[in-house]
Amino acid sequence: MKAIVNVSLKAGVLDSQGKAVHHALDSLHFSGVEDVRVGKQIVMQLSHTDEAKAREEVTQMCEDLLANTVIEDYEIELVK
Q: Is 14 in a helix, a strand, or coil?
């Protein structure tokens, strides 16, 4: 089973990297971009076959290490 974790800054938290990317896109004349938010994606191959147990373990990984839950949100997708 594969776990895909998407981590992004919470709404209202300044995303300086996103602002820099937005500015760069503007300077390259990509005018249709209204906002850019930059996050990270973590892909893990798991040995679990039980989806509930895998989700519980990945959630714990996010809470303990993968995300700074003070300023970041995370989403977990499990793919068989």
A: coil
What CA–CA distance (Å, rounded) separates 62 from 74? 7
pLDDT of residue 75: 98
Structure tokens given for 30: 């990509």
CA-to-CA separations, 17 to 9, 27, 55, 79, in angstroms, rounded: 11, 15, 29, 29
| Cβ atoms within 10 Å, residue 26 | 12
The model's pTM is 0.88
pLDDT in tens, 22-79: 999 999 999 999 999 999 999 999 998 999 999 999 999 999 999 999 999 999 999 9
Task: Tell how far CA 74 is from the center of its chain.
Answer: 6
Between the alpha carbon of residue 54 and those of residues 20, 41, 50, 63, 64, the distances in Å are 36, 17, 6, 14, 15
